Amino acid sequence: MKGFVLGLRKAKNEDSIALILSNKDIRTYYRFFGARHSILQLGNLIDFEVEGEGSSFLPRLRSLSHIGFPWIFNKNRLLLWHNFIKRFEPHLKDAHEIDSFYFDLLLNAAKKWDRQNPKRIVCESYIELLDYEGRLYPQQNCYICEQPIGEDIALMQAFKPAHPSCIYSSALPTKKILDFFESKKTIFLEDYEVDHLFEIIMKGL
Fold this sequence. Notes:
about 200 residues; alpha+beta; about 20% strand; 2 domains; five-stranded antiparallel β-sheet
């Protein structure tokens, strides 16, 4: 089985408890002496086996191997990856059985992480996530006052549109943002605009 490590916490001694996202579910597993194993790290894609299913104790990870990516030793890209993937644990905390969308989203992002600007990948992945979850708001009315938005737009968490004056936030060109919502591509956005979108995403999915 393959999965992304979404979260880790220490257990007794050097054991670890890991939250793993696979292509069919998100589950918590126990790993004896997990703190000793560099494979079991936040954000890693691992191949593993499970033992102890159906017992009263947490199922246990065994036979771990790391499926690496070329960017894994680039500190800047790795930090951005950690910042991105950490947002999924609180977002999926109440989920158990899920379809492959979230796993595929992270896998596709990881495959491109060394070839493109990671912040652009995050923005494009996030807009896909919002669309998939039915939370994309491409309306041209402010989420706060419900009045039409003009040439400048501001975005709240989950990219909800608003007047810059309603949320005291930086303005972005409305047309470019609505085009981004439709195309799900950042190609026509400037780097500073992508940076702003990235910071909104980092507040939570």
